[in-house]
Amino acid sequence: MAAYSYRALHPTGKTIRGVLEGDSERQVRNQLRGQQLKPLVVTAAKSSAVNVSHWWPKYWYGLGVNVSWTRSIGRRDLSVLTRQLASLVASGMPLDEALSACAQQARKAHIKTILLQVRTKVQEGLSLAQALQQSPTSFDAMYRALVHAGEISGFLGQVLERLAEYCETSQATRQRLSVAMIYPLVLLLVSVSVVAILMIFVVPKLVSIFDHSHRQLPWLTEVLISSSQFLSSYSGIMLTAVLVLSLALRKVLSIDRYRLRWHKLLLTLPLIRHVIIQADSARFASTLGLLLDSGVSLVEAINISVQSMANDHLRQRTQQLVISVAEGGSLARSMEQIDDMPPLLIQMVASGERNGELARQLNYAANNQERELKTLMAAIGGLLEPLTVVVMGGLVAIIVMAILLPIFDLNTLV
Q: How far apart (Å, rounded) are the C-alpha atoms in residues 377 and 356?
C-alpha cells in the first residue's frame, strides 16, 4: 500500500486534510466516503513536499521561483518518534505495524506522510535503514547507520533505545544553550530599539527649541542633532540595506568555498573559536561513542561522526582521521595531528584505546565537553547582560548631556 494525501469536505462544511494508506486512489476515496467525508482532492504523497501553488502568486513562476519546499521531521519530533518506535519494536511488534502505529499517533501531516512512505518501502522488502534513506533530510547518516547496525546485529529495539536517548540528550543540551542566550539577546535588541526610538522620535522634538537660537551649540549637541537627522532621514534605507546584505550574505554562504572561508575566519576569533571547538568536539565524540557502542566499524563511525560537525573547516581537517585510521594508525595519535582537537578529548581517546573501552571514554569526553560548553555559554550570557546595560546607560547619558549642555549655557547667560 502507498500513502495518499487528501482534502475532503466534512458534513459540517469544514475542509479536512490528512494522509491515508491505500492500494489505489479509488480505494482511498471509498475509505473517505465510508467516514462520511466527501473527497475533494486525493494525490499520492511524494517526499513530504508542500505544494503552495493554490495560493502562490502566478507571476513568480515566470521568475523561476520554486513554489514548494521539503518539510522534514524536527529534532524534537524525531526524539519523540524514535522513543515510540523503540518501545514498539522492543515489545515484539512487527516493524511495519510499529511504523503504522507511529504514523497514526503523529499529529503533523508531513510526519505521518514520511512514516507511511517508510512503511511502504519496508513492505516492499527494503530494510528499515534503506527505507529511511528515502528521507535523508529527516534521518541523517548517523541515524541510518545506527539503524543498519541494529538490524544486522538483531538488536534493533535496543539500538533504537540508545538512539532515542541520544536524540533526547542532544535536544535537551540544545534547549539549555538556547535558553541561556535568549535573555542577553532580547536585552540587546530592546536596548538598540530604545536608543533608536530616542534618536528618531524624541531627540528632534527636544532640540527644536534651539532652532531659533543663533548661538554656537556645544559640539556634543551638534553631533547629536546630525545623528538624529541622519537616522530620521535614512532609517528606512538603512533597514533595507541591512536586510539586503543579510540575504546576500546568506546566499554567498550557501556556496561551499565561501562558507569554508567564513568558517575558517570564525576559528581565528578568540572567544568564538573556543565555543565552536567545544560544540563540534562534543558532537563528534558523542556521535562516535554511540556508533561504536552500537557495533559500527571504527572507520565508518569516524566518517559519519565527522559529518555531524557544523564548522566546515574543522570538519575538513578532521576528515583526515578517516584516512589515517584506515591505514592502521591510532585514533589518538591521528587526533594529535589536528591542532583544533581539545587535549582532554585526545587523552580520553588514548585511554580508551589502551583499556579497550573507547566508546565509554568517548561518552565521558562528550559529557565533559558539553559541561564546559554550558559553563562557557552561561559566562558569556552573564557578561553580556551587564555590558549591554552599561552601554545602553552610557548612550542615554550622552543623549541627555547633549540636550542639557545648551540649556545650562542659556541659564548662565541669563
A: 34
**pLDDT for residue 49:** 42
What per-residue confidence (pLDDT) applies to 135? Answer: 83
CA-to-CA distance for 296 and 150, rounded, in angstroms? 9
Q: Cα–Cα distance between 85 and 161 in angstroms, integer?
A: 9
Beta bridge partners of 15: 9
pLDDT of residue 8: 80
User: What stretch of H or E contains 386?
Assistant: helix 358-413
pLDDT for 191 equals 81
φ, ψ at 319 (rounded to 5°) = -60, -20
Residue with cell 575558517: 264
CA 393 vs CA 107, 200, 203, 251, 398: distances in Å = 48, 18, 16, 37, 9
The runs of H, that is alpha helices, within 35-94 are 59-62, 75-90
CA angle 11, 12, 18 (to 5 degrees): 70
Question: Which residues partner with 69 through β-bridges?
Answer: 50
Rounded distance, CA 316 to CA 310, Å? 11
